[in-house]
Amino acid sequence: MIKPAAPLRPVEPEGAGPWRMNGWWVVAAGNGGVQHNGAADLVKARAQLLDGARTSRLDPEALRAALVDLFELWLTSKGNELGITADSGLSLVAVGGLGRREMLPYSDLDLVLLHDDIDPAVVAEVADQLWYPLWDAHIKLDHSVRTVPQALRVAADDLVAGLGMLEARHIVGDVELSNLLIGGVRREWRTGIRTRFDDLVTQTQQRWQRSGQIAHRAEPDLKNGRGGLRDIQLLDALAIAQLTDAMPGLGPDVPGGGLRQAHRRLLDVRTELHRVAGRARDQLRAQDADEIGAALRIGDRFDLARTLSDSARTVSYSVDVGVRTAANALPRRGLARLRRMPVRRPLDEGVVEHSGEVVLARDARPQRDPGLILRVASASAQTGLPMSATTLNRLSEDAPELREPWPKDALNDLLVLLGSGRGAIDAVEALDRTGLWGRLFPEWGAVRDLPPRDAVHTWTVDRHLMETVAYASGLSTRVARPDLLALGALLHDIGKGRAGDHSVVGAELATHIGRRLGLWPSDIRTLTAIVRHHLLLPDTATRRDLADPATVAHVVDALEGDVGLLELLHALAEADSLATGPGVWGDWKASLIGDLVRRCKLVMAGDPLPQPEPIDPELVEKAQAGGVHVTLTPGEGKHNFIVTVIAPDEPGLLADAAGVLALHSLRVLSASLGSVGDSAINSFVVTPKFGDPPDAGLLREELIRASSGALNLANVLAKREAEAVGPGPGQYARAEPRMIFSTTSTPGQVILELRAEDRIGLLNRLAGAFAGVGANVRWAKIVTMGAAVVDAFCLDLVDGDSPHQRERIESAVREVIPRPAPPPPKPEPFDE
Q1: Which residue from 593, 541, 539, 540 is spatially nearest to 567, judged by alpha carbons?
Q2: Facing residues of 680 across strands?
Q3: InterPro entries from the entry (predicted)?
Q4: Are residues 670 and 806 in the same domain?
């Protein structure tokens, strides 16, 4: 046991320093000399710190500080005893936990004995007298003996060793010798980072693949998992290379307290894990979680899991930002230095791409534009480009709250975000880690990082909701209201984390949220019913007899005979199951639910056929006067406008009108197309992608040019789409397009309902496809819901209605609408 050479006044153990525990003195470095009987005294002193009574038990941070002082005291005293002094040409340097001042109860000692070309026999004798007492005391030791040039070569040749030496800290001996190593390693790290950066990223990704994500593992690896302590060391290494801030993208005001708080929580949990296990351990076992949670005064294992998820996801986001920032900051060499600066490519109003990130345009004014948050996020989700941390911080500081009810533009941007497939997951994660998502949805706080209560769930509740949204985007064409499917997927478990049945509680929350979003009262009722009954189909199909009429009646009565709601719940049941975990959705469950839905539809009344919108009498009068007329008037929203086109009803008019709108980046939100006599009356509700809409006179002029063939819209729009979509996965749709034909009472006339994903110039190409197969558009109702379209076309068929003609129409339409990505190639058979 270590005892001070001179009497010390005992104090309570609130931090590093001298204190009396169980009758023994434990002394921090700097409080006088110490008398040794070997490293066994060190082990006994460590045991005292760990085995203190409950009233004098050190908290994790104080324990780590005390262990640092204890080991430094022993090493300093032992070094002086062996002649490792300021002018000896010997120096002892610590790396690892002791070097970082993060000494855990059973951490390895990582030590480097430096010497200045001293006689090898002398150095060996000193090393033996330093290492053997530690080995005899069964203290795990990682050691080396090197000159400074030798150590620098090791750091340059071995990436792992180089990262470790970045944390080197002088303990005892020749401080100048230590500084030569510490300064040399850091200098060479900065100058050589360009050639080592790719290897560093690859090594990190391989570690993540081996260890998984801390946030979503039942027994996470706190050190090596994604979001763990190794990732924080990676950020420190990038900061030493002067490529990024050590705390990128996050401040103290974000949920969970930011990166510094996340770091401390991870250290505290790992410290308690060592204390509970009685040995070094990185993986948190389920059987230890309750004890560790209680020791840290966090709660039970579920509370501990939630704390770890929050901390790990904060670290993960910070690492993503840090690595991205570092990659952009790498020094250029050779021909790369001559390349032009990256161009700022417009993505949306006030949103551009720059250096592979989504950033604010130079003229953006976040203080006056509350909808900018959602435009930035939807652009990120659609393009797959990450949002700049600087942009998110600026939005967090400057963007005002959205007024209630939300403007229609903001709701539409939210739907675009939710309809963007897996891109929405990363975008929402970034918003949530920076406090912006909770500003839009305060109810999210109850489910954020909330762990599942059963093992079948893979994700935390908030991540499960976003996984469901991503899967639902692939099912959007199966329902008539993809917007409500997306919102239902986002909110179906929002009632968890609160007292009571989560379906009932969630339904009440969904009503409030629907009002805030500005939904129609009927849509609010449907959204509320989706959340309230999201378990109705899977529970009924798997637990009751489907052949019993009472089973079908139970579902029909609960849904009040609403076929549209039944379809929404059917799609949500599949998305919810797929998002839960592997094996939850399979042929058996799909068959049971499908059979239940089919039986319910037989009992419910069918939906009426789409009907054309009535035409304003003033437009009728203008159409009867003849000529080409184009008007542009403000719509209901701030950025919405109504473009009305009146012109002779000739083949190709709809394609030309829609093409001119797409040419000027006017996105069609809805449209009503009809005719009076020999004139067509087409009204489009549009929103400009950027800036203000063009003058109506310019639209009329280009419409006339397109109709005469002087303007080749097809070529121009094809080039625009290629520039916007690019060669990546964005060129494919997430959902399989769906076409539904219905017969009308008029011979040779059919109604085609198309459900597909939106693209630039889609309406232009659809109209051209109809004209190419002899189908004249009598009237149409165009509706864009986020990233999806639900369009109804009444078609007069020149060759009459027949299965062959419908096949021709379907084939022509499939040629111009986004198609799902092809399946991945099958692996080659194993060749022995």
Answers
A1: 593
A2: 647, 675
A3: ACT-like_dom_sf, ACT_dom, HD/PDEase_dom, HD_domain, NT_sf, PII_UdlTrfase/GS_AdlTrfase, UTase/UR
A4: yes
Instruction: Give which of 185, 169, 317 is closest to 247, Cα–Cα.
Output: 317
CB atoms within 10 A of CB 69: 22
The 3-state DSSP class for residue 232 equals helix
Q: Which amino acid would we find at residue 173?
A: G
Sequence-distant contacts of 42-49: CB under 8 A, at least 24 apart: 42/2, 42/70, 42/71, 42/74, 42/137, 42/139, 43/137, 43/138, 43/139, 44/1, 44/2, 45/1, 45/2, 45/70, 46/70, 46/105, 48/1, 48/21, 48/22, 48/24, 49/21, 49/105
pLDDT in tens, 714-728: 888 877 766 665 444
CA distances to 445, 544, 721, 746 from 795, in Å: 49, 44, 27, 11
Residues present in the chain in total: 832
Strands 109-115 and 141-146: parallel
One domain for residues 155 and 43: yes
Say if residue 316 is in the same domain as residue 372. no
Residues 80 and 151 in one domain: yes
pLDDT digits over 82-108, tens only? 999 999 999 999 999 999 999 999 999
- 302 with 376, same domain: the answer is no
- Inside any domain, residue 110: yes
Q: Report the percent of the chain where pLDDT is more than 70.
A: 89
Give the span between the Cα atoms of 799 and 796, in whole angstroms.
Answer: 9
Beta strands in 548-604 (DSSP E): none
User: Cβ of 825: how many Cβ atoms within 10 Å?
Assistant: 6
pLDDT (average), residues 441-452: 95
Task: Domain of residue 141: give its range.
Answer: 19-180
d(CA 330, CA 196): 11
Degrees, nearest 5: CA angle 332-336-341 = 90
CATH number at residue 384: 1.10.110
DSSP 782: E
Domain of residue 160, CATH code:
3.30.460.10
Specify burial of residue 824 (Cβ count, 10 A radius: 0-12, 13-18, 19+).
Answer: exposed
Question: 466-479 pLDDT, tens per residue?
Answer: 999 999 999 999 99
Express as a percent the part of the chain with pLDDT over 90.
Answer: 65
Distance CA 708, CA 215 (A): 61
CB 570 within 8 A of CB 597: yes
**Beta strand residue intervals within 161-200, DSSP E:** 169-173
d(CA 301, CA 287): 9
Cβ–Cβ < 8 Å for 632, 640: no
Q: Is residue 515 situated within a structural domain?
A: no
Same domain, 262 and 387: no
Strand ranges (E), 187-309: none
Which of 440, 467, 500 marks a domain boundary?
440
User: Do 689 and 762 share a domain, yes or no?
Assistant: yes
Predicted TM-score of the model (pTM): 0.86
Instruction: State whether the Cα torsion 564-567-572-573 is positive or negative.
Output: positive
Collapsed DSSP state (helix, strand, coil) of residue 333: coil
Alpha-carbon distances, residue 412 vs 417, 418, 787 (angstroms): 9, 10, 9
> Under a CB-based contact definition with an 8 Å cutoff, are residues 63 and 24 in contact?
no
- What are the beta bridge partners of residue 221? 283
CA distances from 698 to 346, 503, 643, 694 (A): 22, 53, 12, 7
325 and 355 co-located in one domain: no
Domain total of the chain: 4
- Determine the number of helices (DSSP H) and then strands (DSSP E) in the chain: 30, 17
Task: Specify if 543 maps to a domain.
Answer: no
Give the pair of three-digit tokens for residue 688.
Answer: 């400009």
Burial (CB count <10 Å: 0-12, 13-18, 19+), residue 300: exposed
Q: Which residues contact 68 (CB under 8 A, 6 or more apart)?
A: 16, 98, 101, 102, 103
